[in-house]
Amino acid sequence: MSLDSASALDCKTGIFAGLKVADFTWAAAGPIATKQLSDNGATVVKIESFKHPDSIRLGGPFIDDKPGINRSGFFADFHSSKLGIAVDMSNPDAIEIIRPLIEWADVVAESFRPGVMKKWGLDYESLKAINPSIVMLSSSLYGADGPWARHPGYGAQGQALAGVHAMTGWPDRPPAMPKGAYSDSVSPRYALSALLAALIHREKTGEGQHVELSQVEATTQLLAPELLIYQATGEEITRQGSRKAGSILHGIFPCEGEERWIAIEAVTEAQWTAFTALLGDTDALATARDQGPDALEAAVANATESWDAFALMAACRDAGVPAGVANKASDLLDDDVFAARDHFWPLHHEEMGTLKYNGPAYRFERTPSDLRFASPRLGEHTDAVMSGILGYDDAQIAAFRERGLLG
Q: Which superkingdom does the taxonomy of this entry point to (predicted)?
């Protein structure tokens, strides 16, 4: 794919059109943040190598269940609209390529363990010496300082330390992890907000700065109510399963078919009355409610299991009762609401074919988002970036490659 056909170097649309990003992030937390930039017009150049590819390239799901460095759906969804180059950062001469990239960039983003960028001569002080107005975003599990800064860890450990695991699961069972590395999905929202604040500051003053984020600290923000309750009352809020304090009914209940479930909540007496009337066994449900939450949930499950999940959701909504089908991935891709809002973007990838990518959850009236092209194959745009951004000719690129710097 040529840079011209992708409109990647000179994007005129998008709220971040003209923003230039050197992206050293990997795994999930960093790439999720930089995807918001690339899908909104920024030119984002992702740096990795064949020796050390982004780790999630090695994790599934793989298209057609065939593993391959360019076949990970996990990687694909986090890297739409990004350019990919392969530079061997373990080679001490890699700075010859990276230095002009830093001179070009407005932002350098990285999500390594603290100390990795400094080992390469790319810590903030070194970057600032190359480009005084650079804004650097560093995201790590425990933050850049403190006693745990250099400890290894992934999202499962981060969310445990943030207090999430104490809240998820059932009271009579051990904690249950949320799906995946939950902290990796939380922290990018804070990272992006902080990065944009730094860019606004640079726009006003011309000054760059280093933005540093701890994924654990970002995830702890989710437990603000529990922390306040504990400080105010001394009560330790722990696992409640699907129940919610203050609601008459709050849970996930079975429906007709294999693995079909629906989430239903009744907060007010009016909602509860409407729901019991809908199910048609008001007296039995009232009796079960008097007997306690276990009996109530069992009675509701007995009443819902003969319903089609989508029909029950529609009936609940007509009755003014909050309800939502527990959608599967296949449901999401065919959902009428997502389709009406054009949430999924079909993008063609040379190795994986055309897949639907998650679009943004927001809409800009004047500067619409645009997923311009699919995730890059490893090193797909190396030559194009070397020539189109850094200004090297074919002979110079070939010389870099002969020296083992590219690849």
A: Bacteria
Same-domain check for residues 88 and 120 = yes
Any domain includes 232: no
CA distance 107 to 199: 9
Walk across the sheet containing 323-325 and list its strands: 249-254, 261-266, 323-325
Buried b / exposed e over 267-278, threshold 16 CB at 10 Å, is: eeeebbebbbeb
Number of other CB atoms surrounding residue 37 within 10 Å: 25
Enzyme catalytic residues: 184
E strand spans, 278-370: 323-325, 344-349, 353-358
Question: Residue 237: inside a domain, yes or no?
Answer: no
Token duo for residue 294? 């276990």
Residue pair 400/70 in contact (Cβ under 8 Å)? The answer is no
pTM for the whole structure: 0.94
**Which amino acid is it at 118?**
K
Taking alpha carbons only, the member of 45, 51, 50, 46 closest to residue 26 is 46
Do residue 165 and residue 280 come from a single domain?
A: no
Q: Which residues contact 93 (CB under 8 A, 6 or more apart)?
A: 403, 405
d(CA 243, CA 206): 51
Domain identity same for 66 and 167: yes
Q: What would the pLDDT profile of 333-392 be if each residue is shown by its tens digit?
A: 999 999 999 999 999 999 999 999 999 999 999 999 999 999 999 999 999 999 999 999
CB of 157 within 8 A of CB of 141? Answer: yes
- Nearest-angstrom CA–CA distance, 102 and 336: 44
